[in-house]
Amino acid sequence: MPENNHAMTVRRADSLGQAHSDTLILRCHFAFADYKTPEYGHEGRLRAINLGSLPPNGSYALGAQANVDIITWLQAGSVQAESEGFVPETIHAGGLHLLCAGTGVNATAWQAGQNGASFIQFWLLADTEGDSPKQESREEFPQLENGGFRIIASGFPEDDPEAMEIIADGAPVALSGRNRLLHAQIPKGQGAAYQTTQGRDLHILVVSGEVTLSGTVLSCGDGAMLEQASNVVVLATQDSIVLLTDIAA
User: Fold this and answer.
1) pLDDT of residue 143
2) Would you say 97 and 72 are in contact if contact means Cβ atoms under 8 Å apart?
C-alpha cells in the first residue's frame, strides 16, 4: 500500500511493479504494458516512470506511439536512440533523449553500447494533438554550483531556449505540454528547493543517495507524489541525485 503523508504519496523502490515490454522487464512507478493496477494509474499528465537496464549491445524497442513525449534519461552507460524518420542519436550517462511522438511514430528503439546502459523513462501526455513528431537530445547537463534544481526538459514558453538570443549551455529540451523535468545533484547536508505555479503535481524520484521530504526519508529508487503543490524542499542526508517532474494536475 502507498504511504500517505498529508498530500504526499510515497512509492517505495521495493514495491514497484514489473512490466514486460519487448525484451525488457521494466520497474514501473505507474501502470504500464502488462503491469495493470488501478491503484497506480497515471497522475495528471504523467503517464509513466519506468526504470530499465540493458546488457552490452542490448536493445529495447517500442511500437507505434502518438501524442506523448518520451524522455529517456541515462543513469549509466550509453544508448543510441533510433526513431523512424529521424537520424540516430547517441546519449551517455547524465544526458537525455526526447521523442515527441505527435501525430505518430511507428517504431523507436534504444540500443546500449559496449558497457550496457541503465535508464529512466518519463512518459508525459501532450497537451494538443496534430503536432509533427520531433526529437532532441542533450549530453550531460552542467551542474548548478549550489546543487539546486536545473530544468532539463520543459513545455513552458518562458523556458524555451529558442526565445533567447543565445541558447545557453544546458538549455532544456522542448516538451509538447506544460510540464517540466528537473535534475538536482545535492551534496550531503545541503538541500534543493523548487517553486512553481499553484495547482500543480510534483513527483520526486531519488536516483541515488538518500533525502528527506516533509520529514519523510526517501532512499534510492523511492518516489513521492505531492498533489496540488506549488513548492518543495529536498534535503540530502547523503550525496544524492534527484529528478523532479512538475506536471499539470
Assistant:
1) 73
2) yes
State the average pLDDT over residues 126-141. 89
Query: Distance between CA atoms of 211 and 229, rounded to whole angstroms?
Result: 19
pTM: 0.92
- What is the predicted pLDDT for the residue at 4? 44
Which is higher by pLDDT, 183 or 157?
183
